[in-house]
Amino acid sequence: MVHRIPNPFRIIILGSGISGLSAAETVIKYSQVPCKVTLVECEPHVGGWLQSKVYEDGSVFEHGPRSARSIGDTALQALNIMSDIGIGSKIIGIPRNKITSTRYIYANGKMNELPSSISSMLFRQDPFSRSIISIIAKELFVEKNVTDEDESIYSFFCRRFNKEIADYLATSLCRGIFGGDANVLSMKSCFRQVFEFEKKYGSVTRGMFFSKSGNAESLSDLALKAKREKWTSWTVQNGMQALPKYWADSLRLNGVQILLDTKCEKLSFSNEKVFCTTNSCVLEADAVISSLPVCSLKSLLTEANSTLSALLGSINFATMAVVNLEYVNEKVPFNGFGFLVPSNQPLNILGMTFDSVVLPHPTQHNSAILTVMSGGAWFEEIFGNPNSCDENMIIESSVKNVRDILGFRSMPRRVLCKIQKNCIPQYYIGHDERVEQIKNFLKASDLPLLITGTSWGGVGINDAIINSKNDTLRWLASNHMY
């Protein structure tokens, strides 16, 4: 908590990913005290994990998220913010249709389409031994867990549904969203709404049918358009990295200073001040908001904050290998978003997205653009140390999987490999308790520090935007600035 409010109140924000930009936007828009906001970014560009490579012929490679969901309260609130900052015209909606709603899992040596409609759930489909509707019907009568005790995602799906659903569906979801292992990830922290369905309704199925939207916020024209046109997700002209670029331009117009190529090397606190030692200068401020992964923030703290460092170190992160490939005169033989690989399968990839099938970016040369994801919780087991792994081996593995699974015979026209180190937090069982310890320590220590970002609260784009906004609003209120 800040005890004295200077005018202007100087705030340093660490990280220009989507969480840091959202925090800056919230301070500028809602603070009732004049603020001088300085955003510090170690890279030569804003965006964090939103990274796009756009070629002159229009092809787009996404090294991070390629779209954001547009369904649900959080998604609509995020679209409201996109409208507020004036980039609604840059947003490209991806409407729900047969292609965009089709997902596959690759199991037992073949591609298996997941049911995407009630009618498709009526009949048995591989790799399941029973129809999905019969499994769902049985779940209605499974006795609910009356305790609030956390459990693994795998255990939850086994208990509520059956082992097949856990093996094929739950593990695939965890690998696709978190790059993580369903046996150790927390159901409560990763899929909180589904976890609460059991508590409130006694059944996940009943919860999905009877839960109501809690969004009382009025919707912008952009959000209303998304609902009217039934978008499943959205992307941005010229790739997702264009989003933080547009947002940063808007923040600069509102007086936010953005320092690129400026690496924070040490963070210290003294006499209710913050001192951020960078590779070029020492910045002084009245408070700091960190949107960095907590594993990165941990390395910046001094010995005086060793207890906080230890608490932050209790949260683990996964490293992903992302390989973008473009093929000429090859056609993806499946009309869908892509596929995931369950963890009980012998393949060394997590999944693949069919970017040129789903994303509305123009392509030439009759191109097929794909993204292969590997590593995650299994990175070191498969590829070794992320700092010294062989990228050529990762590329060769990706090309081989494209050949074996999709039947492509030519070599890719373009290839890019990115090792995204510590990019996805792993919400292990007991994650909520670890986060509560961190928050309680910060409150008791009275440090002028807010920690936000994806280290808790959700890893998606919409989660990052809205959680950062809400964290910042609460922090402003606690300091009598909102």
TrEMBL record:
Details of cofactor binding: Binds 1 FAD per subunit.
Cofactor: FAD
Enzyme class: oxidoreductase
GO biological process, one term: protoporphyrinogen IX biosynthetic process
Species, as recorded: Hydra vulgaris (Hydra)
CC per GO annotation: mitochondrial inner membrane
The name this protein goes by in its record: Protoporphyrinogen oxidase
PANTHER family: PROTOPORPHYRINOGEN OXIDASE
Gene name as annotated: PPOX
